[in-house]
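Anyone? Bumping this.
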Amino acid sequence: MTSESPQVRAPALEMRGITKRYPGVVANDAIDLDIRPGEIHALLGENGAGKTTLMNILYGLARPDAGQILIDGTEVQLSGPSDAIRRGISMVHQHFMLVPVLTVAENIVLGEESTTRGGFLDRNEAHKRIIDLGRRFGFEVDPEVRVGSLSVGWQQRVEILKALYRDAKVLVLDEPTAVLTPQETQEIFEVLRRLAAEGHSIVFISHKLYEVLEIADRITVVRRGKVVGQRIPSETNEEDLAELMVGREVSLTVDRGESHPAAAALQVQGLVVRDDRGNEVVHAIDLEVRSGEILGIAGVAGNGQDELIEAIVGLRRPTGGTVTLEGVDITGLKSRDVYEHGVGYVPADRHRFGLVLSFSIADNLVLTSYHRKPYSRGLLRDDVAIRESAEEQIKAFDIRTPSADAKASTLSGGNQQKVVIAREFSHDLRLLVLDQPTRGLDVGSIEFIHKQTIAKRDAGVAILLVSAELDEILELSDRIAVIYRGQLVGLRDGRTADKNDVGLLMATGGRPGDDGTTTGETGSAA
Amino acid sequence: MTRRLSRAWSVLALPIISIVLSVIVGSLVIIFSQWLVTGELNPGLALDAYGALVSGSVGSERAIVNTLDNTMPLLLGGLAVGLGFKAGLFNIGVQGQFLMGALGSVIVGVQLSDSPVIVAVPVSLAAGMIFGAAWGFIPGFLKAVSGAHEVVTTIMLNFVAIAILAAAVSGPLNVIGSASPQTLPVGNASLPVILGRNGTIAIIYAPIMAVLYGFLLFRTTRGFEIRIAGASPDAARYAGMSPRHLIIWTMTVSGMLGGMAGATDLLGATHTMTTTYSTTVGFDAIAVALLGRTSPLGIVLAALLFGAMRTGASAMQIQAGVPADLVGVLQATILFFLVVSPVIKRIFRLKGAKTGLEDSATTFTATYGGEATIR
């Protein structure tokens, strides 16, 4: 194993026998991990496998119950993030910790300001260092630019610069590609390779198998708090990793079969929607979803897809255009009435919208139907009916819980989403709107939800799928529409669509030569 | 068994610790205030005072009846505050709703003072409830249409209520020839006494309201909506509920309960109104709802405790020479310790302990921060 690996030096960082127990679970069970200098080390595992706990321990946010952390061979006790940073460990979080109204330089020096003798900020010194660092690693950024005006990909680079500015030797990146387009992902990979070549160690946390295979020097797989294997990319493949990660064989691609679309179910014409601040963010969109097909809307987050969906499901009033469902005009109806027309909606943020975490699973399963028979009789709740249907759905959707009375907060992310799916899939559906239905979920749950979605399609439901995960769009959609700055900029066939082509459309709207460079049939989704 | 015990402890820990701490603080106040005045340091005085407080509130049949009588307005006020909390609303204006309820009941009660009891009492009581409901509707409506925060509007409406009451009593309701402004007594509209010397029928209907409160919250679809809206306004909107409608409805019903508390006090205890008519029930109700963790049974128990303290206060003053105002100190420190529960949790290492408000999006900080969740 070591013969072909260039790094045979002592580890830059070592974690030995790390154990962390929380009430009822062992989050980390005697985990060993060693990170060599100049190595990109992938930490692969499902959500809830213990990756985050392990990294919190490494970053000083949690204390291990047992085990040691060694930096350059000497044992350390980390008292907190500032201690970890001082010892050269930095973390780039999935959600950036940047202040949008401050400049790049201000964000980078935040908390680490160098001052002149009079107690003023020493800008020149900081600027010089930032430009030097950027030049060294091949991504120069203007220190004077406001962070809010940068793209997501560049904001991430600012985060990395922030770590480098603090002399980080070990950089932990938590799912860094989750918010990036395929092109941006390639760019960030370039940056990471450059960092590794300069001797920095990188811990790359992910559950995307092909990415891990592409970027990592070594891959450590964790499952249920334990290290279940270590691999070198050249000696493994996606199936092997998936099996290690889940603990059983999984099918990585959905067997979606042929779709048999019928008549148009949802027709959106000239829809104009404004956001909360009154800016028009959806510009006269036309689209159509037929019964029995999945229309995927691909787009980088913040291109109007949220507002588009909210306008369709009745949570936001459109300022122009019409929405019809099987010929019935449902424009501007309240969400309750839209629901009554046979629309199911799985919102992107299940914690904020889809569930009430402090309420029981049974209550959550009737969140959108509590007012209907048999759950409500007149003014009263029918607890017996609510319970019975909860038990049925828990069984049908394989929700892992000791009881229907357990609070939703006690479930894992995958099971929480199954509650939402069970609820929205079980009523009399004509249209199903899915917004990021598998975000942050483990492979097993994703597999389950994708299968259920295909089953609904085959049962003749029209499905509108919005996702920032291009892979998910490509895997499920019969047709793919790309949204860019509030407009649909392209329509592709789901089976023949090319990932790079769609990625480019997402990132640029197909600007360079609008009609020539992009392949395939263009046109509106109507 | 141990799991059941630990669950019970997680429910009871904070109220019990708050009460015990306030008793300790109260003892120190008693001992040191005596020391300051007389130079004597007598730890036994605290025991004497608490002994008198207990015997004065539950030591005799008469004391128990008085305690029950004092409990009922607190219970109704506690339900009013609790209902608001469940919906994520901080109705700090129960005091104003209480005063308006008392005013409504005295206006009608004086008119019906010669009517048969069977008519006079229910109608006067209903008048108080309607006045209170109206006083709760206003902040609810303002919040629903403009987002005006109920904490601000209800506090202001408390002052408006005081002014209206004074104007009404010194003006149209004033009895000509009385030395100071005062209304006529309510006569037959007085709540009938059914227990001891002054135990009124409030002892029956207030607990019934507590049962209805529990029934509303946990057995009806409206209650489900209220609890969901309180726990997660975003999820409520997603689920197709109408937050505006719920806010107005809840504030109105909360105000109705507050008005009922006021009517109960006026028709049951004072029977007449002066310009300075006032109690602290509206504010004590906040402590009652918090101590009772907004649960129906909890609010009943907390109201009993506060009612007993009120009742025993005079006995304490007479027998132990400790001012009755000490009860205010005790109630205020209980509220204080409940509000700083995160600190209490840390000091006593109570990880699982609950305040009962976790379900509700309203916390004191969020309330004053004024989250904009209504669109």
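Late reply, but here is one note on the structure posted above: Chain B touches chain A through 22 residues (CB under 8 Å).
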